[in-house]
Structures are given as structure tokens and as C-alpha cells.
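Quick start: read one record
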Amino acid sequence: MRFLAPLLANLFLILSAFGFGGILLPILPQELSRIDRLAILPLAGLGMQGLLLFLLGLVRFTPISMLFVLIPGAILGFWSLRREFAPPRGIFELKMPLAIPFTVVGIVLVITILGGFSEPYGDLRSTDSVAYHYLGPKVWLRNGVIRPVLDESQTAFPATVEIQYAPLMAYGSPSGPEFFSVLVFALMLLSIAGLAARCGLDLGNVWWLMAVVSTMPAVYRGLYGGMIDVIYSCFLLAAARIAFDAKLRGEFVVAGLFCGFAMGSKYTGLMAAPLLCACVLLFPPDSTKRFSRSLLTPLVFAGAAAVVVAAPWYIRNWVELGCPIYPPPMILEKMLPARYFPPQALQGYTDLMLRVGRAMGKDPLHLLLLPFNLTFHTANFEGGAGGIGLVPLAFAPFCFRAGAWNRFAKGLALFGILTTLAWFCTMQESRYLILGYLIVAIFATAGWGSVARNASRFARMLAALTVAISILYGLFMILTARADDIHSGVSASFAERRRHAEIPFVESFRYLNEDPGVGKVLILDPLVPSFYLDKNYIKPLGRRGEEPIPGIHSPHELLSDLKKWKITNVLDVQWKEGNFQVPENQKDLKLVFEENGQRIYRILPTD
């Protein structure tokens, strides 16, 4: 059951996604291959599903209510899968040279599956997963309604993907959301395979492309541990796949829907979607309509579709938090002051983002050196990011010798270049560049194919060695990063040891979760990872300085009147650099648990 629950929950989710995506099939371009449809239909379904769950959750968000969205989708999904069930012709016709990339992809898939049975671990200083990716869905599910988690401002990010972690938690155990990475990995491979084939790559190059992308540590890091960067990139790749071949207004609308799903997943989609429209204007399906008014009209409809599907997240933030983009950038905060985020705390958050966002430098020289730095200096990123291997730097320049690229490939290349420039000028977080990594991998693989066909024997051997080193490096980095996940996924005893080693104050969480008398817990320290607490809680100060309770500026202000807030227990912790916050011998508190820098108090009844 430990392995079956997350597997079945994810199958149920993706089956429902296939059903919703199948609704769009009549207005998809008829030229799409089956492998394109196998990627686009579930991606569209996940976007539609996330939006429906959000709209439902504004009223009621429980395991039962979510079934009203998921079951109809699953019923439709059976019909969609029956139609698309046959594998794409030729994709599994492997000759001996193609068995190598097939094996590489298979190894990474097995790593992802085994690691997917692991539960979340870590603290607020080491991982964003428990900080907000998983925290929001868990709190919404516990409260039965979707409202901002005010002590963690980043749960206000658009969450078209993360909201679907809630049914995976409800039906698939704590490892349900982690196993979702297996679905994302498969959708990523299908997406880039369809794009590469449309650009003109043959079957052999497509398989090597999938092997190269699978072993890019920087890409792989964006698909597990609650991260949504890969699936966000897949939304944009699906939009590009449709938009550059769209002829009818309905096809442009579908491309706009995918842009909206991207905008409803990450704020960076607000930049990427207009850049895609600009690329379509330069490389339209009909070259005679470049910058024509007849092309502008369907692009307006595409933009309207994107705004409609993304707007609910931004409207919710505007209504409840005072600003559609929350936490707001400083320039926007001056016009629309954000609630629950004091100016000094917001300034600190902005300074942090600026420091993280200049990892590779901002001047023209650093732009010229960007390919080299992304390959050899990934430690410049905050906390490291993993590399992208040697293939992009070594072979992308040779893509110009690969032959005459078609219009679609030129438009896709321009889209990759523009989004990379936007990334360079704004927020240089490695995960935010995964879209660029995926696109450049297509052209780098084609460049390697050109070298293999046209170069001397020594050059071909050197190129093959470069690819081998790149793939082996990626396999080593990925396996090393996920070794503990794999071990804890298959070994219950190791998982228990890992909980005690990596979850701060795990003994207190276990005590509070298992005690039926615990109602609402006051968490005094802002860095305590409340994701691990299954009970309602109040955290008067967030880790970024958020102040979720108006008029309360410190935890001590709550200690003087605990009963007013219906608090039953207080969790007080002591980090290495701090002290306990509850005063000794406070009259209305009784110490009921103490261990390893952790104290739990129970509120005494009034005489």
C-alpha cells in the first residue's frame, strides 16, 4: 500500500488530465503528430484541471469536493487514451546505436520512479518544497478552502500546478506529490521529442536529445521535490509548438491557453508569453503575413485566452492581499501597498532577490561569457544549481552546419534567445532558464549530428567522447542527488532515520500530530517548518518578515492573551544561535514535552 497509493493517485490525476485535454482535440492543428498529442493533451488537461480546482477551492476544498472535478475528467480520459493508445510509429524501432540513449533515459526514469516514493524532507533553509510548494496545498486541504497562507508569502504565487498536489496528498499519501515528478519527466521527454521532430531532427537525433536532456542536472532539479519549472517550461513549449503552425483562430486560442497556464504557474510567464507572440509575428505559418493585421487579430484572441485562464490567481491576490503580484516588486508596492508584508520586510525580500538574481553578472561581457559560465561555473548560482553538461557549449555552434533550418526551427530558436535575454536582465535563477536549456539542447544535438556526419574520424571520436562525458557526468550528479531519496523510498527504516536527521524538531511534530487534544498550535519561531504539522497553527511572524495578524508585530504579543486566539498548545524551540522565547514559569502554560531544544506547552484552563 505504501507504494500503491502514490502510484494510483498519480495515474488517476493524469487520466483526468487526459480527459480535460481531449476536449481541445477538435481545435488542435491537424498536423500534430501522435507524439505531440501525447504531450499536449495531458499538459492542457493539467492546466484546465488546476484552474477548475482553484475556482472550486475558493468555495470548498476537500477530498470529496475535488472528486467533482477529477472523476468527470477521468471518465473522459478513458476515451482519449483509447484513441491515442498506440505508441508513435517508429519511436521504439531501436537499432543498436539507439539502444544507448534508450538505456540512458531508462536509467533516469528508474531513478525518478524510485525517488518518487520518498517523502518530503528538509527545513526552510535548505528547500523550497516544504517552505511553500507543498505547504500551500496541505493547509488549503486541511482548512477546506483556498486562502492565502499569510505567514508564507510565496504560497500566494500562481499555483496551477501546485494545487494538484492537494489531491495527490489526499489520495496518495505524503509521497504522492513527489511521485508526480515521474509524470513531469515523461511529459518533458514527449514535448521535446515532438518539437525536435518538427524542427527536422531524425529519429536517432531525437533519442540522443532525450538522453542529453534527461542527464542535465540543472533541468532534472526542476522536476522533483515540488519544483514546477520543468512543467512550466512544457506549457510554453506546447504553446510554441501550436503557435508557430497555427492557421485558424481556434488554434491560436489553444496556444493562448497554454501561455495562460504558464502565467498561472509562475510570474515569469508574464514575460515569456509576449515574447512568444513577437516570435510568431516574425515567423508566422504563412511568411506573407509577417506583421500583417490578419495575424494580429488571432494573436489578440490568443492573448485574451491567456489572460482569462491566468487572471483568477492575480485577481485573488489583488482582492485579498492588495497586489496582483505578491510579494510585489518595490515599484509596484508603491502603487499597490501589499497587506501583511511590512515595508522593511519587503525591502529585505527584494534585496535577497536582487542578490540571487545577479548570479552570472549583468554587464555585456558576462552576457558574452554566459554559455561558458553556465557550463563551468554553476556554483555562481545561490546554493548551486547543477550543470547542463558539455553538449550545448560544444555543439550548439555547429547547428548552423546541420542544414537549412525550417521556419518553425528559426522561430523556436528566436524564442529561446529572447527568453534567455529576459532571464539575463531580470532574475538569474538557474531553474528559471530551463526553457532555454531545453531549446538549446535541440540545436546542440543537431550540431553534434552534423559533426558526426561531416567531420574527420578523429573529430567524430572526440565528439562522441564529449557526449559520453556529458551524459556520464549528468548520471552521476543525478544519482548522487537522489541517492537518499531512493534509499528512503524503498527502505522504511532508513526513511525513519532520515526524518530524525533532516526534519527539524521532528519529535515535537510527532507529539502534536498524535495527541488528539491538540487543537491550534502557536509556533513562536518563524523558521519552524510548519508543513510537518498536521494541526491548525498560528505563526505570528513569517520567515520573510510577514505579519499575518494585523497589529501583532512579535510572537510575545500573543503570549499575553493566548485564549483569545483559541490556542491550545505552544511550540517553543531553541536553535543553536538562539534561546527559548516563553518566559520561565508563565502561569497559564504547562510544559508537557521537552527534548533536544524543543518545548511544548499546554494552555491551562481558567479557574
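The chain has two domains: 4-82+107-321+357-484, 504-603.
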